[in-house]
Each structure stands twice: as structure tokens, then as C-alpha cells.
Amino acid sequence: MSNKEKFFDHIEKGYTTKGDFLTMGAGMVDGETVNKAFVKIPLKTLNRHGLIAGATGTGKTKTLQVIAENLSEKGIPVLLMDLKGDLSGIAQPSPGHPKIDERHEAIGLPFDAKGFPVEILSLSEQDGVRLRATVSEFGPILLSRILDLTVTQEGIVAVVFKYCDDNKLPLLDLKDFKKVLQYATGEGKAEFQKEYGRMSISSTGTILRKIIELEQQGADLFFGEKSFDVDDLTRIDENGRGFINIIRLTDIQDKPKLFSTFMLSLLAEIYATFPEQGDSDRPELILFIDEAHLIFKEASKALLDQIESIVKLIRSKGIGLYFVTQNPTDVPDAVLSQLGLKVQHALRAFTAKDRKAIKLTAENYPDSEFYDTKEILTSLGIGEALISALDEKGRPTPLAATMLRAPMSRMDVLTAAELKNVLKESKLIKKYNEDIDRESAYEILNEKIEKAEKEAEKEKTKPAARKTSSRRKSTRMNPIVKVLTSATFIRGVLGVMKKIIR
User: Fold this and answer.
1) Residue 265, exposed/middle/buried by CB under 10 A (0-12, 13-18, 19+)?
2) Measured CA angle at 463 (ends 457, 468), to 5 deg
3) pLDDT in 10s for each residue of the chain, 502 residues
């Protein structure tokens, strides 16, 4: 038996599945693609999370596109973070190319060009369905994690939320939260101190500064109403295909705090909303986080702990998380250890640090009699990757250098006219793009302060009126005294005395 035949049997046996699956491509050995040696990922294990890594230009985004398309085809909705702005072309079919035909002929798969149902979402003022959440939905713990607060400051945030709950003050946006903080150390200081204890002005000042920092990254657009319902991410079109929800994030690449705030709130909301599913035959929703290092960049230990917790727990809700980044070392070890599917594109060794990273990456993959992992990591071509997945029993599949299939949709961005047409057909824009600013903590407290100021003004004017009236009383002469001191009375008395004397 030749090495090629031996490899074919190895791959066929290692990637046999009883249930439904995605076909990623065909295995390669000795630099050749082995026709129909299909590398398949069971749908059953897609909620075990995954990683797509590799150097710039090696095809990570196209791999993401391939997986998203095939999930949609199977009726599984997808959420994509589009930081580079090159994923919207999924809505249009591929124009085809001779190189695509050549690739699929080598793999042994027919190529079928098609577009997919797409919903464009936005965190900022870009066109798309607006994503928002209220401060109340975040809650004191999550908000404290985002702001990276101390234990004392976390206590103050908890008191603010408790006060708002007790007094029926809705916390919708950041201006509501800031107003309550200012009230707690200003006009309402006595009220707060009586009910909840004394608050340090320096601590509330620090919290305010951190909120302003968050606002400067655009969070004021994210916090507010109408809150996005995560169930709208799980829609299926009339043909039974899952919607591919694309969040346009091209304008927040330099705002890691906003990006991590959004991601953490989204994951927390999904975890709180979706029912427990256990080990089902297919996931409910798959999330792809492109440029994943932005989530972990500048993140505090508390925030990382929160992300790690959600990654570990959200699998039971039927949710799969896939991190797309240049190097696996961009992802914390605690998260990396939870990832079942690893798609590793080529890495480049230009420095000693690069060589060390390649060595560490190679150690994350199972040994193979067909490859020297460290060597093949630097020799893979564009659209080729090392794949290691989990079979239906949760065991690692054989390591396979894989010639990946091409995307069925267009590998490009939508034109302005095409984007306008996608937005026009959206059923969610009307639901979420209306600006709502109903009465909340900000307006209620302003009204309360204004009323208190008017009452205080009235109290000031009352004593002044009493003093004026008392002065008037003291200047009014007693009528008896007035008679006794009158000129007529005095002349009369003097006249009587003269007569007596005579």
C-alpha cells in the first residue's frame, strides 16, 4: 500500500461520522491533495468552540466564510464580527474562477456558486440594524467588570443599582447612571447616607471618569433603547437557511474597550436567554469573532475571568464560539484549552520570537506519522490549513493538512447599491432603528432636584416676610401715646396749669 493510500484510509476512518457534518476540504500528504479524502466536522461538536489562526494573507477570513456558508446551508444561524469590512459579499454568489474549479476538482467536490441570507448589524452610526443594550440589563457586576473597578467602587455601583430599583428609576443609558452618581454625592447625599451609608466623593469621581472614557470610545451609542433581542439572531429564511448576521465593526478597531464591552454583554445576554440544550445533534447559533485579540487587548483580569467563565458555560446552551486571530498565543490559555476545532493556517518565522511561537503552536496539535508539525506550519500555502477537530464522541480527529474548499459566495464587499438593497429588505431595521429616549433616572432626578430647589427658595422668602412685618409693627405708634404726645393735648394741659397757678 502506498503512502497516499495509507493516508486516505487514515483520514476516511478518522473523519467518519454518523450524523450530519460540514465538509472542509480534502487532506494533503507529501504536498499533494488526496482526492475525496474529505475532512469533515460533525455538527454535533460545533458547540465545542474553535480557533482559526494564521499569518496575514493565508486565508483565515475565507475559511470563516466557508464555515459560515455551510452552517447557513444546514439551517444554523451565524453571527460574524466584520472588523475589516470584507464579509458582506456573502450576500452575493461567487462569480467563479478557473482556479476555483481546479481546486474543487483536486478536492473531489462540485462547486456551486450561491448567495446567502444576510442581515447587516451596526454598533455605531454606520448603516445597519442598531445594536443596543440598557445599563440595567448589564447589571452592577458586569458593568463593574467592564469599568475595571476596585472592590469599594463595585460596592458603590451596587448601591446605585439598588437605589434605582428601590425608587423605580430606570437606568437606560450612561447619562442616567452618571446623574445618579452625581446626585448621590450632591443634592441627594443626605438621602443616600441615611439609607445606604456614606459614599466617598473620590470613588464616585473615579467611576465617573471611567464612564467618560467608555463614552469617548462610542459606548453612548451602544447603551440605550431599544434593546436588541438576541432571539433575532436565530432567524431562518423561507428556504430553511440560517441567517448570517454580520456586525460591521470597521470603525471600532481602535476602540478595544467598546468591542470587549459589546462582546461580553452579548455573550452574557445569550447565556441568560437561551435554554439549556445539553449535547444535541446541532448547535443553535455559531459566533465568529474576527481579530479576536481585540477582546483580550487591555482587558483587566476580572474581565478576562468573566469571558473565560462564559466560554466554559455557554456550550451547554448550544452556542459555539470561534476565535479568528493571527497567532494562537493571542488567546489566553484558559480559553484556548476549551476549543475543540483548530484550523491553523501558515505561520511565518522571521524572528526568534516567531520560531518560539511556532514551536508552542505545534505542541497544541496531536502527533501525526504523516507530518512534522513544526515544518508544515511554515510551508502551507494560501487556502491550506492544518485541521484538528473532535469526533462525535469528543475524541480528537487525526491531524490533517487540508486543501480547503472555496467560498460559494463572493469574496469581496458589497457595492453601495447592493448594500442599500440588503438594508431595504431587512425586517429588523424598522424594529430597532427608531431612537427612543423615554423618561428615566436622568429626567426623574432632574425634576426632583428642580422641585427641591423651588421649595428651598420658598423657605428662604418666608422668614424675610415675617421680619418685614415685625419692623412695620414696631414703627406703628400706640394710639394712647399718640394722643398724649399731640400738640393739642399738650396745649390744653399747659392752659389748665396756668389757671391753677393764677
Assistant:
1) buried
2) 120
3) 688 899 999 999 999 999 999 999 999 998 899 999 999 999 999 999 999 999 888 999 999 999 999 999 999 999 998 877 788 899 999 999 999 999 999 999 999 999 999 999 988 778 889 888 888 888 888 888 888 888 899 999 999 999 888 888 888 888 889 988 888 888 888 888 888 888 888 898 999 999 998 888 778 888 888 888 999 999 999 999 999 999 988 776 667 677 777 777 888 888 888 988 877 889 999 999 888 877 776 666 766 777 788 888 888 899 999 999 888 888 888 888 889 999 999 988 777 777 888 888 888 788 888 988 888 888 899 999 999 999 998 889 999 999 999 999 998 888 889 989 999 989 899 888 877 767 777 778 777 777 776 776 777 776 554 555 445 444 555 555 554 455 554 555 455 555 555 5
- pTM value? 0.82
- 114: Cβ contacts below 8 Å, ≥ 6 apart: 93, 94, 408, 409
Closest CA to 327 of 287, 360, 376, 288: 360
Cα gap 322→59, rounded to integer Å:
15
Secondary structure (DSSP) of 4-30: HHHHHHHHHHHT--SS-EEEEEEEEET
Task: Look at the block and give the residue holding cell 456586525.
Answer: 247
Nearest-CA neighbor of 279 among 23, 120, 95, 44? 44
If we measure between CA atoms, which residue out of 266, 326, 306, 281 comes closest to residue 121? Answer: 266
Distance, CA of 202 to CA of 206 (rounded, Å): 6
**78-82 vs 244-248, strand pairing mode:** parallel
- The 3-state DSSP class for residue 195 equals helix
Strands 50-53 and 319-325: parallel
Residue 319: what residue type? I
Please state whether beta strands 341-344 and 319-325 pair in parallel, antiparallel, or not at all (unpaired).
unpaired
- Is residue 21 a contact partner of residue 44, using CB atoms and an 8 Å limit? no
Among left, alpha and beta (phi > 0; psi -120 to 50; other), residue 441 is alpha
Q: Which of 182, 174, 165, 178 is nearest to 217 (CA)?
A: 174
First to last CA, the chain: 168
Instruction: Give the distance, in angstroms, between the CA of residue 222 and the centroid of all CA atoms in the same chain.
Output: 9
Asked whether the bond before 189 is cis by omega within 30 degrees of 0, the reply is no
